[in-house]
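Hi everyone, sorry if this is the wrong subforum. Our group has a chain we'd like a structural model of before ordering constructs, and none of us has done structure prediction before. Sequence below.
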Amino acid sequence: MAYQIDLSGRVALVTGASSGLGAQFARTLARAGAAVVLASRRTDKLQDLRVAIEAEGGDAHVVALDVTDRDSIEAAVAHAETEVGPIDILVNNSGVSTTQRLQDVSEADYDFIMGTNVRGAFFVAQAVGKRMLARAKGAAPGTYVGGRIVNIASMAGLKVLPQIGVYCMSKAAVIQMTKAMAVEWGKFGINVNAVCPGYIDTEINHHHWDTEGGQKLIAMLPRKRVGRPEDLDAVLMMLASKESHFVNGAVIAADDGFAV
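Answer:
Right subforum, don't worry. Here is the predicted structure as tokens:
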């Protein structure tokens, strides 16, 4: 018997949607019927993605968002809900990294990573979560009570890797943030879960896998391969769906077994 997840009538906000995993998440949600709000600083890239989604028959909207700026977060979420409707699904995807050993991390490096990956992720989830809570308490209009928040962490939050120590620390914080939100908001029908992707081939890192360093890394992986963005579709769809009502506070590794 075929099984299909239908997100028709749902509004999904995807941060960091201008490229890579964020763009793939947006396409996947739109194909399932959700109205997708594409959020990023690079709105030119978002407009291209919007055209592509609409060409497939999907519903996409664009909003400028800088997750390091609280005012930008509030404005983006308010704009999304005014233009499209109450946000039912948040894919909290924005993230950055630098590569160096811990003794070489500058204050600017540290703030750059933590400001986006931890502070930014928290305040985006908070802004959306407050609105979900208001609907659950009957203090704000909305046809769908509850919500789904999917925080994109990393297998680096589960397994420390060399030369990206601060990134590992930031994603470990996202995992704990997910659990804290799940505990506090779960009773209102808001399910908060985290996905921990492994190494994924995207346009940002595609060139790396053919280099000597990239080949050495691939040789260390359990099945000697990197993933594709679409390899995360199934776990995303499950967590975004109404059928996942019994899944809350989960931390799901999608890394081909690397963090085991």
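For your construct planning: The chain has one domain: 11-254. The helical segments are 20-31, 43-55, 70-83, 107-136, 165-185, 212-220, 233-240.
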